Structures are given as C-alpha cells and as structure tokens.
Amino acid sequence: MSPTGGLYTSRYLWFVTKKVIDVMWFIFFSVYKVEVDSGVESVQLPCKTLVHLPKDLRLEWTDRDNRKVHVYQNGSEQPKEQNQVYEDRTEMKKDLLRPGDLSLTLKYPTDRDRGSYICTIYSREGNILMKKQVELQVKVLKVEVDSGVESVQLPFKTTDHLPEDVRVEWMDSDNRIVHVYQNSSDRPEEQNQVYRDRTEMKKDLLRPGDLSLTLKYPTDGDRGKYTCRVYSTEGNFMRGKTVLLKVKGQNHLFVFGCLSLVVCL
Q: What are the Ig-like domain coordinates in residue numbering (predicted)?
C-alpha cells in the first residue's frame, strides 16, 4: 500500500531579516501527515520550498525525541551526527538545493518510528530560515484467529536480498524473545520458555525473503503486538515489521451456586 498524506494544519508564519541586507526569509511552519504500512521498504517525509537556499546552510531532520535523523551541511551529508537508530536508513537527494526538495526518505519504517519529524534549515549564523513538521503514522497489520486453532502465521516478507549473517528477532509486546534466527539456523536457547517448541520459520528464509513466523496453538494469553527486526552483524537495524495478533476466545458460562448454612441454636 502506498503512503498517504496531506497538509492538515498550519501553525504560524513569520519573517526574518538576514543581517543588515534587506532580504526577507519566508519561514512557514506547517504540519504534514503521512501514513504508511509497517514493513514497507521506505516512506518519504516531504519538505519542499520555492525559496532560494544558500549553499552554506545547515539542514537537520530530527524526531520526536530530538534525536538527529539526518544532517546536511556545507554541501554534504554528516553521518557522524546521525543517531545510530537511523544509521543507513535515511536518504536525501544529492543536489537538494537546486530543486528545493529537502524531503527525507526513511527506509523500513516500523511501529517505533511513528511520531513527529521536523525539518529545520539554519543559516551560517545559526538563524532558523525554515521549519516544517511531518507527522508519521505507521499502521500495524492485524491478524485475527480463533483460540484453539493449530497455528497462526505472523507475516513478514521482503523483496530485498538479505546477507547470510543477519540476525532475525521476533519479540512480543512484553519484550520477550519469541524466536531468533542467526547464522543460517534457529537459536532456541535464546527463546523465552513461553514460546518453547511453539514457533517455526522457513528453513531457508533468506532466499525467498520470507521472515514470517508460525506460532503454534495460540491462546488468549498470546494476544498483542509482535515485532520482527533484522540486524546486520555489526548490530545495525536493517528492517522490521510489527503485527498485532488478536485471539478470539470462547465464551464460557460459569454457574455459581449459593450454599446456605442454617445454624440452629
């Protein structure tokens, strides 16, 4: 499903005079909403301007926790300033000043990536020239199953080629390890005992790009969010997906009897 979005609010508008020169910078703080499915390959956070931008500007994309998502300064990207959560996951146009397109591409968005992202442009002196906000919503896939069925599949497929030395982790909403695959084999010793002998993945899961997890004998206690994350050998996040599992239980009728005790004095 392709991402959807739209401008839904504008907060304020003001002008800034650049030093003594009679040049007015047009600064428009707007909020743009983008919605995307968890597990897609990428999503674009839009930020465009028709105003001519100086070559010595500094551009920062930050997230809701004020972590640096992407930094561009003096005509080049600054990966050393980037938070490790976003390492190798962001991309901007090479010559972004010419078209005025400051949009950011975020690769493999997950449920954890939802929230506000702010694009801020600074002058050489550190003055804010432009500021735009994007609200990212990452929709979680819902899987519903009846309690008592033999198994349920939590789907996650990718078209990209994955190296053989990746680490694949499935975690539940309580941050317990559901299943681990590393170095071309399962790692049952890392698995939480609640899921022991209850999970299964494809034997050669890297070749077809199918990282789906089969959970056997799901019960009401298994409901909640399950997140699959893929890491490189260096421990860098590569991609991920969150699935919400709903287990429909059976209705039971409990009849309680009242026992009356008569004490005769």
A: 41-135, 150-244
